[in-house]
């Protein structure tokens, strides 16, 4: 069965610095998708970035990039130039059949 | 209105009450989802609808009753809930179910407190 692990319950980063949030996954599917979502205290889950298992290049979206290492089954999110507004919960997710499975999340706090 | 909206944003109800949560998506999607997010637990998928038809019921107790009258609207009817049902209920939509590239877009959620 698919499973997502996020080993960092909480992370701190200084404003304007880069931070990496870890995500490892377990699946036997040959084809799958990996996603990162941001959840501020307001509750809404905001889609950040997507990586397909057959994509040759790492995905990037503005300040977000995904460090995809297929052999290691890891899909770490890198946020460059952190901003105070980046403080939130971050969830890694992957496709499971026609649905998603989510990791437990990492709480990121950006310090001024 | 854009994206996925949910009402009410906050709800307090007694265990004997009946209430409904509403979700509406303005993205032209065909699939809609209900998730439950409890404190210190991963998101739990509850129900999935595709073209108004329920495709998944993730062993959800019958005190939760979903309804999908069309591809844009999704309801979650609540009755005789328990205090452990207190959680954030999130609605999501996607273009369809098929394919690994299908991104789900979420609403702001309804924070439910059962007394």
Secondary-structure map with pairings?
The complex is a heterodimer of chains A (112) and B (115).
Chain A: E1 3-5, E2 10-14, E3 19-21, E4 24-26, E5 33-39, E6 46-52, E7 60-61, E8 64-69, E9 74-79, E10 88-96, E11 99-102, E12 106-111
Parallel strand pairs in A: 2-12
Antiparallel strand pairs in A: 1-4, 3-9, 5-6, 5-10, 7-8, 8-9, 10-11, 10-12
Chain B: E1 4-7, E2 10-13, E3 18-25, E4 31-37, E5 44-50, E6 53-57, E7 64-70, E8 73-79, E9 87-94, E10 105-106, E11 110-114
Parallel strand pairs in B: 2-11
Antiparallel strand pairs in B: 1-3, 3-8, 4-5, 4-9, 5-6, 7-8, 9-10, 9-11
| Helix fraction of chain B by DSSP (H/I, runs of at least 4) | under 10%
End-to-end separation of chain A in angstroms reads 41 Å
> Which structural class should the secondary elements of chain A be placed in?
mainly beta
| Oligomerization state | heterodimer
Span between N and C termini of chain B?
Answer: 32 Å
Helix and strand run of chain A: EEEEEEEEEEEE
Q: Which word captures the global form of chain A?
A: globular
Kindly report the average pLDDT value of chain A. Answer: 94
Cα gyration radius of chain B (Å) = 13 Å
- Mean pLDDT figure of chain B: 92
User: In terms of per-residue confidence, which ranges of chain A show pLDDT below 50 for 5 or more consecutive residues?
Assistant: none
Order of secondary-structure elements of chain B: EEEEEEEEEEE
Could you describe the 3D structure shown?
The complex is a heterodimer of chains A (112) and B (115). Chain A is mainly β and 112 residues long. Helices cover 0% and strands 54% of the residues of chain A. In chain A, strands 2, 5, 6, 10, 11 and 12 form a six-stranded mixed beta sheet that branches. Chain A has a four-stranded antiparallel beta sheet with strand order 3-9-8-7, with no helix packed on it. In chain A, strand 10 (88-96) and strand 11 (99-102) form a beta hairpin. Chain A is globular and about 45 Å long. The relative contact order of chain A is 0.34. By secondary structure, chain B is an all-beta fold. Chain B contains no helices and eleven strands. Chain B has strands at residues 4-7, 10-13, 18-25, 31-37, 44-50, 53-57, 64-70, 73-79, 87-94, 105-106, 110-114. In chain B, strands 2, 4, 5, 6, 9, 10 and 11 form a seven-stranded mixed beta sheet that branches. Chain B has a four-stranded antiparallel beta sheet with strand order 1-3-8-7, with no helix packed on it. The radius of gyration of chain B is 13 Å and the shape is globular. Chain B starts with a strand and ends with a strand. The relative contact order of chain B is 0.33. The chains are: A mainly beta (112), B mainly beta (115). The A-B interface holds A 4, 31-33, 35, 37, 42-47, 50, 52-53, 91, 95, 98-100, 102-105 and B 33, 41-43, 45, 48, 55-56, 88, 90, 92, 97-98, 100-109, 111.
């Amino acid at each position: 069965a698919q499973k997502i692990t996020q080993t960092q319950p909480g992370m701190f980063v200084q404003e304007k610095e880069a931070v990496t949030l870890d995500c490892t996954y377990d699946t036997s599917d040959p084809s799958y998708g990996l996603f990162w979502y941001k959840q501020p205290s307001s509750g809404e889950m905001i889609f950040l970035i997507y990586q397909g298992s057959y994509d040759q290049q790492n995905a990037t979206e503005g300040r977000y990039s995904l460090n995809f290492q297929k052999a290691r089954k890891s899909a770490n999110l890198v946020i460059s130039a952190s901003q105070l507004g980046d403080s939130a919960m971050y969830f890694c997710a992957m496709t499971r059949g026609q649905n998603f499975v989510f990791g437990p999340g990492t709480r990121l706090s950006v310090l001024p | 209105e854009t994206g996925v909206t949910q009402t009410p944003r906050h709800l307090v109800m007694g265990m004997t009450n009946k209430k409904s949560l509403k979700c509406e998506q303005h993205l032209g999607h065909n699939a809609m989802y209900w998730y439950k997010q409890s404190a210190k637990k991963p998101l739990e998928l509850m129900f999935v609808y595709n073209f108004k038809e329920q495709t998944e019921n993730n062993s959800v107790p019958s005190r939760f009753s979903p309804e999908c009258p069309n591809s844009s609207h999704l309801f979650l009817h609540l009755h005789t809930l328990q205090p452990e049902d207190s959680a954030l209920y999130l609605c999501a939509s996607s273009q369809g179910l098929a394919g690994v590239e299908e991104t789900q877009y979420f609403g702001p959620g309804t924070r439910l407190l059962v007394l």
